[in-house]
Write a structure and sequence with these properties.
Elements lengths: L2 H14 L7 E2 L4 H6 L4 E6 L5 E6 L4 E3 L2 H9 L6 E4 L13 E2 L9 H7 L3 E4 L7 H9 L4 E3 L8 H11 L3 H22 L9 E5 L12 H8 L3 E2 L13 H7 L3 E5 L8 H12 L8 H4 L3 E4 L9 H12 L9 H13 L8 E2 L20 E4 L5 E4 L6 E3 L2 H9 L6 E5 L13 E3 L8 H6 L3 E4 L9 H8 L3 E4 L5 H15 L2 H22 L9 E5 L12 H8 L3 E2 L13 H7 L3 E5 L7 H9 L8 H4 L3 E4 L9 H12 L9 H13 L8 E2 L1
Helix pairs in contact: 1-6, 6-7, 7-12, 7-18, 12-13, 17-18, 18-23, 23-24
Length: about 675
């Protein structure tokens, strides 16, 4: 369907069904919505453009499409399936479910109605069987039709199903995974000139039938850095003449494997051999160079879509994607989202095996590397650093997140996370005017620090550089520097791909916040008083805190004060009457509940809206820096706009990032309440 419908669906989901308890109810009563989940209703526009009303909770689902079935299991919702179509045979546990139709086009309506599901999920072939569709809906069963092969909608499909099936965190995890690889491919092909992009002929199940304008295949060829020879034909699946294909002389041929060839390498080879042997194609570049590939279409559907995109991208640009192993990514998807090993053939012939993206050892080169730091100083190493000292807890965390903890040979006393860092020697109490004896003795290739190292002057930096130690200075606490710092440190440590992975993840969450806040009127933005680690110490324009407040859609009550970190009077705060108060919690403060009670009980604040409505929040500043920066912005955004972010669980995302990058669990409090 048209891209505009996909966008509209996302908007409706974002604005109408953010809360698991629903925004609208059948009776139109807020009390009913919060009182009983059974009576909550959400509205969705599906892939065919139909408005569908779904009652929550959805506990019983019939799936009439194998791609949707697989996606339900990836969302950890396989237990909700009570019926399936005959083509839904994976994962193996679905075989225990009752067959209620051959496909979406020919469902057993009587059996479906008898089972009384809360929802039927199908592809758009059911749209062409209006009699069956009408009977199911007349029985009071909502029907959502989606194609998991439609890559323009796949993230919206996953997000919508996550909301409908109460699996929002898992849906966000899958969407973030997809977005990472989409962004990785887009970044790498962006600068490739058209004359370096291969001409691609893609063939469907039948000889000479291709994909053209408006098709998923055409979009993926473009996204992967190729040029579809049939792109200008104004129908999605045209049958081409052999003369047309020969005239275009494609560099690469992609052929979809028929269903009977599934998993069978001999059958895949036979399909390829048939193309290589076609007399009409003997002069075509792709055949002469044997750049003919057969693929299982499941690679381009649902949760597996990143694997298919990577296969095609590596086919088209093997040098640009030399460090990418699509099969390894596919295996990761199977294990991570479906709990299954990767078995059988999905792409033939195999592409050269390489280490997965983000594997630090796959990226180390001996070439000189150079970046520009916060001070505008060009930092150059003759090869990526093998040893590093960090005088900043934020940089220490980032070094571990980049998979380079083994390179760290010294730290400051504030660097206490992750736990492994406690085994590293403390070389200085902090970054301000540090003693240099031990640092010079260890002689690292690189020292990283925040700007306190040069707070008064550049003398410390000069001495280190004279001793042959490269010095990189930056501020991970600044939103405008977070991604720059990550990218630069990735270059200096020789792990650029891992750095880009983290950056893409951050950008995914930034985009989520921006999408949710799109259209908020200035008059609807909450007024916020942000307090630092001292009473009445706040932030104004030019400060880190002000930038964060702006990003999450807040009006900073102190924005116009003349200094970035002013001390204000209680009377000033009361006169501004903030809707929300956010307070930084430092390690020397009392515990979270005690600090919160102390703040809530300040006599001067008793008449302020934030205190009266108990919209007062505490946070550990570590969640607004470096790799954890997305956690901070999601907490702040949810505090300010609870309805718009009702389906977002910042704590779950925090736990995910801690496990993903540090291998630890979320075992202490970072926000309160």
């Amino acid at each position: 369907m048209a891209i505009q419908k996909g966008v509209l669906a996302v908007i409706l989901i974002a604005l109408v069904v953010l809360a698991a308890y629903a925004i609208y109810t059948q009776m139109g009563s807020k009390e009913v919505a919060t009182e009983t989940l059974e009576r909550a209703i959400i509205y969705v526009i599906d892939g065919t453009g139909r408005n569908v009303t779904v009652k929550l909770p959805v506990e019983r689902v019939v799936s009439l499409n194998s791609g949707i079935t697989e996606l339900l299991y990836a969302l950890n919702c396989g237990d909700k399936i009570i019926g399936r179509d005959a083509l839904s045979t994976f994962p193996p546990q679905v075989l225990e479910k009752r067959v209620v139709g051959g496909s979406s086009y020919d469902p057993n309506v009587e059996l479906i109605v008898e089972l009384q599901p809360d929802l039927v999920l199908a592809d758009d072939m059911l749209f062409y069987n209006q009699e069956a569709l009408t009977k199911i809906e007349k029985a009071g069963i909502p029907v959502i039709m989606e194609n998991t092969s439609n890559v323009t909608r796949i993230k919206a499909i996953i997000t919508n199903l996550g909301i409908i099936l109460d699996s929002k965190s898992r849906a966000q995890e899958i969407v973030s995974f997809i977005e990472f690889y989409e962004n990785l491919v887009a970044e790498r092909v962006r600068g490739i000139p058209p004359d370096k992009k291969p001409l691609v002929y893609i063939e469907w199940y039948t000889a000479w039938q291709s994909f053209a304008k408006g098709s998923a295949g055409d979009k993926i060829i473009f996204d992967a850095g190729g040029i579809n020879i049939a792109a200008e034909i104004d129908q999605p699946a045209p049958i081409l003449s052999p003369e047309f294909v020969v005239g275009k002389n494609p560099d690469i041929i992609l052929r979809m494997a028929p269903s009977e060839a599934k998993g069978n390498v001999t059958a895949f080879k036979a399909v390829r051999d048939e193309i290589l042997a076609r007399p009409e194609l003997k002069t075509v570049k792709a055949v002469k160079s044997e750049k003919v590939y057969v693929y299982d279409p499941i690679l381009l559907e649902g949760v597996r879509y990143p694997a298919g995109l990577l296969y095609w991208a590596k086919c088209f640009h093997p040098e640009v994607f030399a460090d990418i192993d699509p099969e390894a990514v596919h295996s990761q998807i199977m294990q991570k989202f479906l709990g299954m090993p990767l078995e059988g053939v999905y792409f033939y012939p195999s592409l050269p095996s390489t280490k997965p993206v983000g594997s630090p050892q796959s990226e180390i080169s001996e070439k000189p590397v150079s970046v520009i730091d916060w001070q505008g100083v060009t930092v150059t190493l003759q090869a990526p650093a093998k040893t590093v000292i960090s005088l900043s807890s934020g940089f220490t965390e980032l070094i571990y997140a980049l998979g380079c903890g083994d390179k760290l040979i010294g730290r400051d006393s504030y660097s206490k996370f992750p736990p492994d860092v406690l085994n590293k020697p403390v070389v200085a109490p902090h970054s301000y005017n540090p003693p240099l004896e031990l640092i010079l003795e260890l002689k690292p290739d690189l020292l990283v620090s925040n700007t306190n190292l040069v707070y008064d002057n550049n003398e410390t930096r000069r001495k280190l550089e004279e001793a042959g130690i490269a010095v990189y200075i930056d501020e991970l606490s600044r939103p405008d520097r977070v991604k720059i710092c990550i990218r630069n440190l990735g270059i200096l440590l020789g792990v650029e791909a891992k750095a880009e992975e983290i950056i893409n993840l951050i950008e995914g969450y930034e985009s989520l916040v921006q999408r949710r806040l799109a259209g908020v009127k200035e008059s609807d933005k909450p007024k916020v008083y942000l307090e630092l680690f001292r009473e009445w110490n706040t932030v104004a324009m030019g400060s880190v805190g002000h930038s964060l407040l702006e990003f999450v859609g807040a009006i900073n009550i102190a924005a116009d004060l003349p200094t970035p970190y002013p001390i204000v009077s209680p009377e000033y705060v009361v006169s501004k009457n903030p809707d929300v108060i956010i307070r930084m919690k430092m390690f020397w403060d009392p515990d979270f509940p005690t600090l919160w009670e102390k703040l809530m009980s300040r006599p001067e604040l008793q008449g302020v809206s934030a205190v009266k409505n108990k919209r007062v929040y505490l946070y550990d500043p570590s969640i607004t820096q470096g790799v954890m920066y997305p956690v901070g912005i999601l907490y702040w955004a949810k505090w300010l706009y609870p309805d718009r972010f009702a389906d977002v669980d910042p704590g779950a995302i925090h736990a995910l990032l801690l496990q993903k990058y540090f291998g630890v669990t979320l075992d202490r409090v970072y926000v309160y309440p």
